[in-house]
């Protein structure tokens, strides 16, 4: 009797629905400091553009100006330890150059020659920029004002400019290598197609299979090359727009005002956000 009562009182099983794909993607995106910082950067850039357009009333202008300065301070706190990542990259590059070539590699090969020098110099400059910027954080927060803050910020922006210029140079260098290697890829593809045709005409299955394998390999290499070229174009857009910030501050880029800097920040941040969103 009790068994029958328990069976009659048994509750139906509850199925927990999986999380919504969009919400799950947002959670993974904002777990990253990069995604969070770039979102704040976009808001800061929009505030800058709005202020430069001069379409706000006096009270709203004061609020937007306060929001822009506070967001900039928050972003500096988020990227406080970025110099460690930069110097870690430099250490990895130096270690890869000094490591024994007989050691098996589990990661993609490190750049060599001129590209290796550009990468080491670029990440060194980025590291020095972040480190110098950190020295003025208390001044920016109005906790401990110091008279040398403006000088240090100027020097930091110089290293930021150098790093972005080196990044652009590296992108152009790598692009030229991909374009130069395209002819070789095309040549190998034509050789593979000839081998496939010979296999078909001669009735040799082994040769035909080798030609098909070579064709597939060439197509895969072409897809990788196109993807890499697309990444380089985005990198040039991002670094080129970001270069306006230290360039205008230092007076090295003339003919550009804060409105153009703000628009460049919006463009570079949107491109970066799209890349981060795709990677999570």
UniProtKB/TrEMBL annotation:
Residues 183-215 are annotated as: Disordered. Its main location: membrane. Keywords: Membrane, Peroxisome, Peroxisome biogenesis. GO terms for biological process: peroxisome fission. It holds the Pfam family PEX11. It is found in: Peroxisome membrane. One of its GO terms (cellular component) is peroxisomal membrane. This is PEX11 domain protein. It comes from Aspergillus saccharolyticus JOP 1030-1.
């Amino acid at each position: 009797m009790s068994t029958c009562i328990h069976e009659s009182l048994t509750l139906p099983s509850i199925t927990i629905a999986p999380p919504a794909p969009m919400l799950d993607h947002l959670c993974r995106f904002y777990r990253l400091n990069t995604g969070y910082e770039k979102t704040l950067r976009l808001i800061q850039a929009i505030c800058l553009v709005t202020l430069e357009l001069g379409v706000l009333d006096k009270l709203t202008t004061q609020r937007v100006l306060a929001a822009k300065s506070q967001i900039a301070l928050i972003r500096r706190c988020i990227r406080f330890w970025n110099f460690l990542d930069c110097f870690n990259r430099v250490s990895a590059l130096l270690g890869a150059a000094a490591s024994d070539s007989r050691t098996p590699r589990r990661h993609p090969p490190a750049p060599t020659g001129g590209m290796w020098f550009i990468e080491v110099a670029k990440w060194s400059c980025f590291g020095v920029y972040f480190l110098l910027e950190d020295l003025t954080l208390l001044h920016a927060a109005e906790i401990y004002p110091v008279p040398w803050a403006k000088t240090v910020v100027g020097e930091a922006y110089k290293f930021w400019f150098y790093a972005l210029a080196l990044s652009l140079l590296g992108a152009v260098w790598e692009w030229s290598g991909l374009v130069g290697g395209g002819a070789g890829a095309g040549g190998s593809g034509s050789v593979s197609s000839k081998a496939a045709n010979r296999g078909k005409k001669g009735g040799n299955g082994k040769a035909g299979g080798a030609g098909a394998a070579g064709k597939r390999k060439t197509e895969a290499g072409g897809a990788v090359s196109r993807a890499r070229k697309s990444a380089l174009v985005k990198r040039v857009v991002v670094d080129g727009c970001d270069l306006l910030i230290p360039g205008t501050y230092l007076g090295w880029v003339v003919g550009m005002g804060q409105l153009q800097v703000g628009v460049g920040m919006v463009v570079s941040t949107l491109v970066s956000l799209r890349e981060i969103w795709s990677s999570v």
